[in-house]
Amino acid sequence: MTSNPVHGVNALVRGAQLLTRKELRPFIIIPLLINLVLFIALGAMMISQFDDLGRYIGSLLSDTPVDTSNMSWWRAILAKGADWAASMFQWLAWLIAIAVVLLFFMVYGYLFGIITNIIAAPFNGLLAEKVEELLTGHPPPPEALHSMVFRTLGRELRKLMYFIGWGIVIFIIALLTSWTVFIPAILTALWGAWCMAIQYVDYPLDNHQRSFGELKRVLMRKKLTTLGFGGSVMLAKMVPVLNIFVMPAAVAGGTALWVERIWADGDPGKGPNGKGPNGKGTNEKSIPVETPPATAKKKWPKGIEGPDQ
């Protein structure tokens, strides 16, 4: 059972390729329209914050020389020393500036993703269902539309509570280790990738009504593949305009990742055309086997016993 981040990146690319299939187009239009409206609204809000962000970055990277002409000799020495120390650690200011810009776009990406995922959840469930049917020839178990809508919205809220709860823990750890700069950056990146993977691989599993705890166990079985997929989705969501198209591609890619990489490698739960007894999952796919036609018995002349009599 291989786990490779490249497989995760390839899954997102595969999802984008699947969106070109005409069978999926009716299930992509509404999510794209939702993304477009939110992109315009959040984009306008983000642009309004650019001035403040630019001033803050400029203050970090300011290299204005200290004027010591009106200072006493000892204050001038202290000011020159502080100026020299600041110039020695200018690289740290650049790191902080880069981290601030990345954090700004990550917050934008998360906010954009959270809102669109909640609104578009039922449509994403339908898209994942059609992608699974396209890849395997077997749709998930049938379900009434109103039941699916309420279930998927409830699932989105469950995921949101999970993201917020653990996000607070990650934030506290990052705050306590902020002096290292690198630990918060690594923690945030890993947590963001994990969240994106959970968000989009969940749709096909939820269509088979598998629990949220089961979803996390499934993804942990292929950690590197999971982080590769989630990381590529997270980076794509940080890019304005591109993030309009990321959500349907991520839904299709998450479904393909589960069907072709995770479930095909022995995921023991419910899967495409695979249910065990009493509704439990099975490692073996339920592939229909044709029964060979019965061989007709040969009739022998009266009074003679043949081998099948």
H/E element sequence: HHHHHHHHHH
Main sheet characteristics: none
Task: Give the proportion of residues in helices.
Answer: 55-70%
- Return residue spans where pLDDT drops below 50 for at least 5 consecutive residues: 276-296
- Beta strands, count: 0
Mean pLDDT over the residues = 76
Q: For the CA atoms, what is the radius of gyration?
A: 28 Å
Strand content: under 5%
Output the structural class.
mainly alpha
**Number of DSSP helical runs:** 10
Distance N terminus to C terminus? 52 Å
- The best one-word shape is elongated
Looking at this protein, list some descriptive labels:
mainly alpha; 10 helices; 68% helix
Write up what this structure looks like.
With 309 residues, the protein is mainly α. The chain has 10 helices and no strands. Helix 5 (90-136) packs parallel to helix 7 (182-207) and helix 7 (182-207) packs across helix 10 (242-262). The longest helix is centred in the middle third of the chain and has 47 residues, at 90-136. The two termini are 52 Å apart. Mean pLDDT is 76; it is low at 276-296.
